Amino acid sequence: MTPPASPRVADVRKILIVLLGAIGDVTRALPLLPRLRALYPKARIAWAVEPASHALVETHPDVDDVFLFERPKGFGAFLSFLRTVRNFAPELCLDLQRHAKSGLVTFASGAKVRLGFHRVNSREGNWLVLTHYLPPQRHLSSKLEQFQRFADWLGAPELPVTFGISPTRAEEERVERLLQEVPRPFVAAFVGSSWPSRAWFPSQTAEVMDALHRSGYAGVIVGGVAEQEFARAVRQRASAPVFDLTGATNLRELFAVFRRSAAAFGPDCGPMHIAAAAGIPVVSLWGATSPLRSSPWGSESWVITGSAACSPCYRKHCPIGRICMQAISGQDVLARLEAALVARGHAA
């Protein structure tokens, strides 16, 4: 029998994780939770988060409390949020976000051990509020693996990567209703991104949807309300039927849609990581950002990077027409999808 892990920080009854925002970041941090639970089986684990990613942690089996910062409600809401964090009184706080606001939340926790990223990997003075920090991480390295370093530092046992995203029964039933007109098998296209520079194009997306239809796969577009115009443009350009679910799902329901998909494709964005968490092959499209840092877990082989001298630029808005993304053709994506589907046991 393997002996139980010996934690580096003992006598921990309450743990606070501070990772407030981006959907992709929160998704990639979820595999940290089972390792914390294995190390501290009796501890109460809380997560400080903003509304955008709330659904990912709200029903997670290893999260006991969720502290929600409702940023649109302003400064008063932030002060109330900080009081809630302070009253929780954790012994251990993990700052996974590494900027000034997360540092303020971490400091407000009053935790005796405040663990975060090394100074060279943080910004805005975040490191000043920490009592302990990780060894330096390579800048262009997997964020999921960077988050796993917190568990390593604490002495947590190694565990397989799992995400624990847990749709409710009602959500699963709603997804079945949303998909009742969609033929199987189907491929999902996630088409939005918080950075316009990362987006692909409706014409090329429609080209892929048409080719998939000829190969026996239905096409489904997923995303938020902001992606509805993009979805309309795809449907206008496509000859085959394209099923539009933009704005129709929350994040757990989106996960349930991906879990029913044969594969998914699209640019660097939060839903890309949710698709990876669902365990399907994900063909990801890159230009402004680097797959070395953010490729979807388990689908690193299906990355496509657009060729451009300025890539990756890490600019939110591109002044030269996203030439990196223009360099990715529909045929490039289709070929990678076909290879991914064959590798996962589907007919091309």
Describe the structure.
The protein is of the alpha/beta class and 348 residues long. It has two domains: 141 residues, Rossmann fold (3-Layer(aba) Sandwich), CATH 3.40.50.2000; 175 residues, Rossmann fold (3-Layer(aba) Sandwich). It contains 14 helices and twelve strands. The strands form two sheets. The protein has a six-stranded parallel β-sheet. It has a six-stranded parallel β-sheet with strand order 9-8-7-10-11-12, sandwiched between helices. It starts with 13 loop residues before the first strand and ends in a 5-residue tail after the last helix.
Secondary structure layout:
Elements: E1 14-18, H1 23-29, H2 32-39, E2 44-49, H3 54-58, E3 65-68, H4 75-88, E4 92-95, H5 100-108, E5 113-116, E6 132-133, H6 143-154, H7 169-178, E7 186-190, H8 202-214, E8 218-222, H9 228-237, E9 242-244, H10 251-259, E10 263-267, H11 270-277, E11 282-286, H12 291-294, E12 303-305, H13 323-326, H14 330-343
Parallel strand pairs: 1-2, 1-4, 2-3, 4-5, 5-6, 7-8, 7-10, 8-9, 10-11, 11-12
Helix pairs in contact: 1-11, 2-6, 7-10, 8-9, 8-14, 10-11
What's this, in brief?
With 348 residues, the chain is an alpha/beta fold.
What is the string of SSEs from the N terminus onward?
EHHEHEHEHEEHHEHEHEHEHEHEHH
How far apart are the termini? 45 Å
Residue-averaged pLDDT: 94
Please identify the structural class as seen in this structure: alpha/beta
Number of contiguous helices: 14
Q: Can you tell me the CATH class of the largest domain?
A: Alpha Beta
User: What is the total domain count?
Assistant: 2
> Any guess at the CATH architecture of the largest domain?
3-Layer(aba) Sandwich
Radius of gyration over C-alpha positions, nearest whole angstrom: 21 Å
Strand content: 5-15%
* Total strand segments: 12
Side by side, the strands of the main sheet go 3-2-1-4-5-6
Briefly note the CATH topology name of the largest domain: Rossmann fold
Catalogue the unreliable spans: none
The CATH homologous superfamily of the largest domain is named: Glycogen Phosphorylase B
Overall geometric form? globular
For the biggest sheet, the summary is: 6 strands, parallel
Classify the helix fraction into a percent range.
25-40%
